[in-house]
Specification:
It comes from Orchesella dallaii. The chain is of the alpha/beta class and 265 residues long. 47% of the residues lie in helices and 12% in strands. 27% of the residues are buried.
Amino acid sequence: MEIETSPSLQALRNLLSSEDLENIPADLNLDEYLMRFLKFKGDPQRAYETLVKYHKFRNSDKTMFSKMCPNAMKHLIDAKIITKLPGKDVRGNPVILVCCKRWNEKEVSAEDIILLVILFLEEIIRTHGSKVSVVIDWEGYGLSKYRQLTYRNLMRSFELARGTFPISYKAIHQVNQTPTFWLVSKILFSFFSTKLKKRMHLHGNDKESLAAHIPVSSLPTDYGGNSEEYTDAAFTDTLYKNDEYYSLLSKHLMRNSDETEVFVS
């Protein structure tokens, strides 16, 4: 798809170093790739800074990111631990649902969960834009899941929350919080920016409170809505159809797999 070159896009191009270009597969449409960052931050300099942080995160955790291919992750996607709801919130943003009770921690690791979140964010950025709302259902989150919150997984979560990805979290809704939730919040949420903390909503089991932010037409019945669907089937189909794109990113990332991988916090 041809993209008309705007002054902002040209300015962002001019900021790219040879090292930046090495991080982008040559087979990808460069302008399409760069527009993801410009849609997130309209200013070319700020868009470039996000791009650098994004590449740094990917390069610091190559082993994890190399696994990010939808077809290879089908068993994780089918588990519906993380889904994109068919509808949108009251502001028109796509909504991701994280359902802890569907997470069997004996079969699915915390790293798998983080990779799933990243995959869904990547696809939303590609197909819907730079804004998203998140609902986290904490029912079923106990100590056995909490124990998987290692330093490395904590830092990965931190990266996702601090603008490493070209996406803005417009709201994060916490529902059915368990006692273990408060342990997580004291650790993880302490890293969040003041702006992101203000976008947190603690609903407990108050379904009417959640429905004030996400229409009942978009919410599954378990959350006080009238939708029978938890998954946007068209979104999932597109995700699988874009497997070649993600495979290309993974192969390019691992082109120098003999290099030492260093996780950068």
